[in-house]
Amino acid sequence: MVRTLIAFTPVAVLVLVAGSAVAQVSVRSLVKRNDAILGVGLVTTIDAVAVNNAGSWIVESDTDHPFTDADRILIKDGAVLLRENDAIAPSPALISSFDSVGMNNNGDSGWNLFLRNTGASTNDSGVYFNSTLLIQESNISTAPQFSAGTPYIGFFEVKMTDTNRLFMVASIDDPAIATTVDRGLVWVNYDAGAGTFTESVLAKEGDVLPGVADAVVDFGTGGENFAITNAGSAMYVASLTGVTTTNGALYRDLTLVARKGDVSPIDGRIYTDIGTSTKLDMNNSGGYVFKAALSGDTNTNSVLIRNGARLIQKGDPVPGIPTETISSFGTGPVRITDAGDVVWYAQWTGSTATNQGLFLNNQLLVQKGVTQIDGETLTTVAGTTATGGITEGFAIGRDGRSIIFRGVLATTGVGAFMIELGCLADWNNDGTVDFNDFLEYLNDFNAQNPRADINGDGVVDFNDLLEFLNLFNAGC
């Protein structure tokens, strides 16, 4: 079922962030507070967001509909995709609420939906392919790694590959595990044509994973605590039995990547907080990034690690604003593109009116108090809980061209916004890299236009010209 969204018009604007490395970056609004949803009401909040390589997007919103059991919606590319209280299998079930949203590059979603009108609290959620029910709470798992007769008793996050393989963090009650609520990481291999699937378990509570001597107690259950590849690899975090100094670990499939208490890539500093709250991501090449806390100096005690190496650390100069230093990476996610570029959020020292931003590697994309969207100043940037009370502040298309984030505008309030990244060498932004781009860059260079400061060092000089020539020769 599709309903029409009205009363908003996305407007593209060029983001010029003072002191930053300038790229072909535009941002437009997708859904904002007080947008009118036909037949539902006015948008009041923005929650989970998703985007794929095609630039297709999903935004979860609440509205002011007077019937609170029907006021929450999923908007996909400008139309209502699903609404709270919609009928859904198994009949006579109705949608009660949405878990985090996701979407593969085919535009399909694998997710957990909460249900009402199922007759019992023991079967009021399910895992769906779009709106097709695959597994309902209380169903018996067919995964051979669980004991016979093991029921599903709940679901956390679900993600899906482009070939319709779903990966979920599930609660089960395996008779062979002493506790009554157990956790497992489960692959569901769905054949959409045949409408059939198989299940297999990657890891479960009680397992002793390779590289450690302690058993799994739990896994990270948030969408920022695990990631998958199209090839069927998974990265996740587990809490372990044992002493508190080493009772958390980060894994890629069954290979240990890092453990709480391990020595980090920063000399003399150890990881102090790897565990179920660790924010991480992995791309389709197996490249990864994660946030970690470190022992030692509190001014430098958090870091982003990419592929086992330090990417950026608390206390470092802010890219594009070298007079300020990073004070926090926030509570939100961290994302990595298939090219290995990292999208990350930071707060920094300096004026509280301008001390938040979203970055791509060392490029500042949007900044609190500076970026303008629809003629308004952005006053809160993704990465904090201020835009909706949850930590899913932004998402990316794996090709790195589209970034969707939640933010707050000075007058309108909360909204979902799309950052679109063009090719830097396409200086006139006409979709083609040619001699016209070279001439236009030379004009900006000769005029000492700050836009020509390619390397973001605050000076337009010969180094910028050389860098642009390298980009121009490489093309897009």
Keywords for this entry:
476 residues, mainly beta, 36 strands, Methylamine Dehydrogenase, Chain H, disordered N terminus, 6-stranded antiparallel sheet
Q: Which stretches are poorly predicted, pLDDT < 50 over at least 5 residues?
A: 1-22, 385-390
Mean pLDDT: 90
Morphology: globular
Number of helices: 2
Q: Strand tally, please?
A: 36
Biggest sheet, open or closed, and with what strands and sense?
Answer: 7 strands, antiparallel
CATH class: Mainly Beta
Counting helices, strands and paired strands, the structural category is mainly beta
* Overall radius of gyration: 23 Å
Report the helical percentage.
under 10%
CATH architecture grouping: 7 Propeller
According to CATH, the fold-level topology is Methylamine Dehydrogenase, Chain H
Total domain count: 1
> Beta fraction of the residues?
35-45%
Intertermini distance = 39 Å
